[in-house]
Amino acid sequence: DQLLVLIAGGILGALYSEILxxxxxxxxxxxxxxxxxxxxxxxxxxxxxxxxxxxxxSSTGINRFAYFLAINISQxxxxxxxxxxxxxxxxxxxxxxAAFRDYYTAVLMxxxxxxxxxYAISIIFNSRTSQMATxxxx
Length: 138
Known about the structure:
mainly alpha
């Protein structure tokens, strides 16, 4: 999963290695699309594939909120690592004028929002249609 993010950062960084002012809106749109789709695809597995486990655990009396919170806490390292993986190639190839922390914060907020949307999609749709719904909503 992180390899997809790394490849996206490398490809976009190589395409826009000489950044011009008129290319910045297109570059940011492509960055948003690439990071959103890759982060949403790997976030689909958090709840969608674990439905039988969830229902088995909840039928034995385990708190549903505790299960939800545990899944979210286990995803925090991935959410924090994804912007670093993307920016490792992208930032070094593009050499933008803004600080790294500014780019990291923007990509982190994008990954966080898209992961939450993907969690909802994985709960609402079945596993066959959730990837298509993710691509359409991204």
